[in-house]
Amino acid sequence: MHALDIAIMVGYFILMVAVGAWVTKKAARDSESYFLAGKSLPWWVIGVAHGSSGIDIGGTMWFVTMLYIYGAKGLFLLWIWPLFNVIFRMVYLGTWVRRSNVLTGAEWMRTRFGRGRGGELAYLSVVIYALVSVVGFLSYAFKPLGKFAAPFFPFDWSPDTYALVIMLVAGVYCVLGGMYSVVLNDLIQFGLILTAAVIIAVVAMVKTTPEQVLAAVPAGWDNLFFGWRLDLDWSEKMPALAGVIQSQGYELFGFLILMLFVKGVLVSMAGPTPNYAIQHVLSTRNPREAALENLVMCLVSLAPRFLLIAGIGVLGMVFFSDQLRGMGSKVDFEQVLPAVVANYLPVGCKGLIVAGLVAAFMSTFVSTVNSGVAYIVNDIYRRYVRPDAPQRKLVRLGYLWSAVVIAAGIGFGYTTLNVHSVTKWVANALVPAFVVPNVLKWHWWRFNGHGFWAGMAAGTAAALAVPALWPTLKDVNLFMSILAISALASVAVCLATAPEPDDVLKSFYRTVRPWGFWRPILLKCRAETPQIQPNRDCARDWFNVLVGIAWQIAMIAAPIYLILRQWDRLGLALAAFVAGAVILKFTWYDRLSRDEGYLAPDR
Questions:
Q1: What is the model's pLDDT at position 173?
Q2: Where are the alpha helices (DSSP H) in 56-116?
Q3: What residues contact 182, with CB distance under 8 A and at least 6 apart?
């Protein structure tokens, strides 16, 4: 990089640490200030921070790869995560979670299962899963960070060394400022990410033509819709990709997307995982703002990100295809992102782009660390070691354990093979371990803490063991096997043990007001409060979820068709986006504004 670009990068790092130092005193007041910013920040600020946390280098590399290989259809492969889980949180789950008024996802278990043995086991299972997932996500971030940074600096260091240095810089401000530092730095980082996206998009549109892009890809690549089979013939353009598609098992594309949709619905119904996702929801000031925070998160994390991805992908297709073809069967799409930034951006812009993409990593990194440490300090130390610990002691422990978690993430990061391997493990092994017990806890009154613990423990153990024992297992089979193990353990242990006490279940039902199989508890609540009514919003919530998913697809398709300059398809995407927004305004937002949630407590 030019000296100006390096100066921009150094200035960015100094600014991040300075912000962390600036908010240190405010964050050190008590544990709620350190881990949830005192639940004092506006919903739109938390939403921007949450959205910024959802953007990372590893995911961006993976999305660029999917766009390159599968074209516009690759947008549906985002359901591997699934990205539409934010729609579920926006429509109803965010308000359900926030009504508990707790500090972490593990503490939330007491709202549902009480403080008996079953509740205690459920509590511990979430803590263990949270720590495994936090270290997994930090490891996932490590390898792509170094791979991205290495081409830009004049030192003869390995990619892992660059990742180590950047993680340590991010760790300093994360340790100092807690959630305040996370949120404020995320606001700065979002500005950089947005700037990077606009610059890349402009460069892509100036340096390429639609004809150049379409000449580098097979027929039908730019079509969003698809049949039962993929029908993208790369044999002439890049023969190695035919083998890649076959090895990934994506030839029966329609069947794959159907499976991903079903999987995504189950994952989304489980609610936010016990990491930074639930911490941002719990940081909001009330249930209504929890829903609005997720709306902003959806807008912030998707529209700029896919402008960036589309720009990088198009530049890679036009200028980097020859190098990729030259790699033969060892084609490495993870090189597209750094190659495009290194070779096709002017002086000054390169520094901003690198700073923006490193910022994307940092925002995810510090949010993940903060959420993991919250479980250690609040759910282990304060719960089992010293319940009466002074608040300043808890904050100092936050400093200590932040450093330990960062070190663990770096250590496991050195063992990571590549972005795709960790992506597959997180999406297809770790996530299904969480699904069944967390869906049942919302919707079935009979489900108890023993069943929850059994499902989480069996699923987490399977997520660690099954990929090691059967490394060639296909993605869908891996997901379904871990899901089945977790489901069997959940239901079997639940039915073999007693339900939770009536007072716990009635308190949960009155506080959270879920829909589902709660009639026995509703009748018991009515015996004490005759005017109480069930949650009848299930149909409306599902309608809003489906509209929201279509609205989200239009939102991420529009930037791609903008970069491709396909104005008719861009117009259709924008029309669908506006139509979805208008529908949600009347069926979701207006009701939310009136109720401050979806069910007023006295309904």
A1: 61
A2: 57-70, 85-88, 94-98, 105-113
A3: 37, 49, 53, 174, 363, 366, 367, 370
Cα–Cα distance measured from residue 25 to residue 13, given in angstroms and rounded to the nearest whole number: 20
Q: Which of 597, 443, 602, 445 is nearest to 529 (CA)?
A: 602
SS3 404: helix
Task: Give every residue of the chain whose pLDDT is below 50, as ranges.
Answer: 595-603
Helix (H) or strand (E) segment spanning residue 346:
none
The pLDDT of residue 548 is: 96
Task: Identify the structural domains of the chain with CATH numbers, from first to last.
Answer: 3-18+42-65+73-100+107-380+390-430+535-595 (1.20.1730.10)
Answer positive or negative: Cα dihedral of 446, 451, 455, 456.
positive
Reference 333, options 325, 324, 342; nearest CA is 324
pLDDT of residue 25: 63
How many C-beta atoms lie closer than 10 Å to residue 412's C-beta? Answer: 16
CB atoms within 10 A of CB 39: 18
pLDDT of residue 557: 94
Tell me, what's the pLDDT at 596?
A: 44
Distance CA 109, CA 124 (A): 9
Q: How far is CA 347 from CA 5, 9, 341, in A?
A: 7, 13, 11
